Amino acid sequence: MKYLPFEHLIYKTNLSEQEVLVRIAGFIDKKKIRIFRNNITKEYEGTIDGNCFEINRIIKGRNSFQPQISGEIQQNNYETQIEIKMKLHWSVFIFLLFWCLFILFTLITVFTNAEKVSAESFFPVLMLFVAYFFTMFGFKIESKKSKKDLEKMFEAKIIKE
Questions:
Q1: CA 145, CA 131: separation in Å to the nearest integer?
Q2: pLDDT value at position 94?
Q3: What is the C-alpha separation between 101 and 116, in angstroms, rounded?
Q4: HSE-up of 5 (CA within 13 Å, CB side)?
Q5: Strand (E) or helix (H) holding 154
Q6: pLDDT tens for residues 44-72?
Q7: How far is CA 154 from CA 8, 23, 53, 67, 129, in A?
Q8: How far apart are CA 76 and CA 90, in angstroms?
Q9: What is the 3-state secondary structure (H, E, C) of 6-60?
Q10: Does residue 139 contact residue 1 with C-beta atoms inside 8 Å?
């Protein structure tokens, strides 16, 4: 899903399932509302539930398109696999869905009611392009950082992207 703000990765590591869980616990802080970002001690925040976890990077500033990372740890014979899914926060996804549907509706209305197609008729297309660009730019920048961090944290390699 190279052109969408979703990613599905599988990491492979020689660490045991317990070692991976301990490492994750060492890298994340509990989720809390952060008004002032002065007392940040960890790079990620989230929760661990059994062999599953949900985390996101703690960033300075704002990025609504930051990926929400969920993962599941599976122990095989001599290796451990970590299945990672990165996606937009559900509220951002819903907002973008409604925004794009509204713009598409506007675009259809403009082209069905227009007797002549002018340059101004393509403004909704530009709005869709800008929304897509900002979404992908914000998502991919943060997902690249998270991929590197997870690779280091798990001492792992990505086997499926």
A1: 22
A2: 96
A3: 24
A4: 25
A5: helix 123-154
A6: 999 999 999 999 998 887 888 999 999 99
A7: 16, 7, 14, 19, 36
A8: 32
A9: EEEEEEEECCCHHHHHHHHHHHEECCCCCCCCCCCCCCEEEEEECCEEEEEECCC
A10: no
Task: Map 97-152 to HEC letters.
Answer: HHHHHHHHHHHHHHHHHCCCCCHHHHHHHHHHHHHHHHHHHHHHHHHHHHHHHHHH
pLDDT digits (tens, 9 = 90+) for 91-126: 999 999 999 999 999 888 888 887 777 777 788 889
Nearest to 147 by CA among 138, 157, 137: 157
Q: Which residues contact 58 (CB under 8 A, 6 or more apart)?
A: 29, 34, 37, 40, 42, 43, 44, 45
Tokens of 53: 């976890």
* Confidence check: pLDDT of 36 > 70: no
Note the pTM of the prediction, 2 decimals.
0.86
